[in-house]
Every structure is written in C-alpha cells, then in structure tokens.
Amino acid sequence: MSISACCLTPSGELRSRLSHEEIRSCLTSKTGLLWVDAAETTEEDGKFLEHTFHFHHLAVEDFVSSKVHPPKIDDFGDYLFMIVHGINHAAETDIVETAELAMFVGPSYVVSGHRYPLYSIDYVKKLVEDDGRPMRRGADFLAYALVDGLIDNILPTIDAMAERTEEIEEEVIRNPQRPTLEAILQLKRSALRLHRIAAPQRDVLNRLSRGEFRLIGEEARIFYRDIYDHIMRIEDLNQSLRDRGSDALSTYLSSLANRQNETMRVMSIVATILLPMMLVAGIYGMNFKHMPELEW
Q1: Measured at the alpha carbon of residue 259, what is the angle toward residues 255 and 260, in degrees to the nearest 5?
Q2: What is the pTM of this model?
Q3: CATH class given for the domain over 2-252
Q4: Beta pairing class for 72-75 and 80-87
C-alpha cells in the first residue's frame, strides 16, 4: 500500500511523511489533526488500521476491499465511516467509470482510502503542503474538503457528456449510422452509472448536513449543505442527459424507419414498372405446343 500521512500540531506545525510509529504517536496524543491517506490497500494494511485506530473489522473489510460498494455512512460512536463516489479519470474508456473514496472521520483524525488516483486527493494534499489550510479547522472540515473536491470533479464529466449529446443529436438528424447508435448506448450507460451513485450519495450528504452526527460540527454543516446542493444539481443535469439520450435513440429509430420506408417506396416504383414486362416474359417464355400469335 502507498500510505501518506501528515499531522498538523496544535502549534500549527505540519509534519509529513510519518512512519507507522509516528502515526501511532500522533494518534495517541489526541492533539492536532492526523490525516492518513492510503491507496491500493492490502489485508496487512487493514490489520494495521484496525489495531492502530481500533476500527470495526467490518468497516475495515469494506475499506480494503476491491469490490464496488454503494455510497453509505455508518456511525460507530467515536468515528464515522463513509463511502462516497467520484469519477475515475484514469480509466481510458468511452463509458464513465466511477471511483470510491472511503473515509474514517474521528475527532482528531481522518483516514481516507482509494484504489485509483483522485484529483480531489491531490488537490487537498497540495493545499495542505502550501499552508495546511484544509486541516486547520478540524477533521469535519478536512472530510468536507475531500468530499467537495470529489463531487466538483463530476461536473467536467457532465459537461463533456452534454457536448457529446449535442453531437449525437446532430448526427441522428443528419446521417444516422451504426456508430451513432453505439454512441447513444454509451451515453445512456454512462448516465445510468452516474445515477446509481448520485441517488444514494445525495442521502449521505443530506444526513451529514442536518446534524445527525455529533462529529460534524454545526459550523461545518452548512458546507455539507453546499455539497448536497451540488449533488442535486449534478443529478438534475444527469437526468436531463438520460432523457436526451432516450430521445436521441427514439429519433435514431424513427430516422432509420423513414429511410427504410423510402427504400421500400423506390423498390415499389421499380417493381411496378417492371411487373408488366415480367408478366409478358413469363407467359411467352413458356414452351406452348400451340401458340396462336405465332401465325398472326
């Protein structure tokens, strides 16, 4: 596993690249704020987290598992465990891929884990290295910064899908071909994947913003409400893309049916012209023994 850990002391000093022993020491002191970020976790790493932070083993299993989990949040009293989703920008595919971010949020620490590179993690790390700003207001604000960056990075993908939708709509009207149908189905699958994470994620953010968890301070709740508004906007935009994809598919099928009807109309005209000649050739092409017209 690739672990990066940093600790902001009460005096404002930022200590980074902490070893396992330094992580334990910072956690035991219960002062300042500890942030541990893990990528490509293994079973050994899960045991370290479970023994060091005393996390519930079921939550640790979800944290280190490579399986896809739906967005959720669990309250274990002394800490929160949540899973939220963003966009996997490292995936080279025409269909949108999602990436998980799992987090433990305690009174003086945040432990985050992900299996793919995330822009939000890199951005928050840069801010921390510059002036430690995201860590100066507590664990709930650090968790907010991570989730906010993750949600905001969905919008560029939505914008790219909207531009592709406009191109598809023009192709459907101008010259619908089989690649156009493939593009429509890719768009619909991408929109469906975003819908599957946006709906449960909306509930998670709503719970964080309404004061259900004591570890989320009153001052931080308004910021989680802002993220909730963002995910609602994303869900609305994505629903619009789903509707436009369905409309594009209907238009494609209608255009294809109209083209087939036009082809059949041309074939019917040709058949009408050739049918009398075919009838005459069919009759006089037979081997009659007595054909009256031969002596006319």
Answers
A1: 115
A2: 0.82
A3: alpha beta
A4: antiparallel
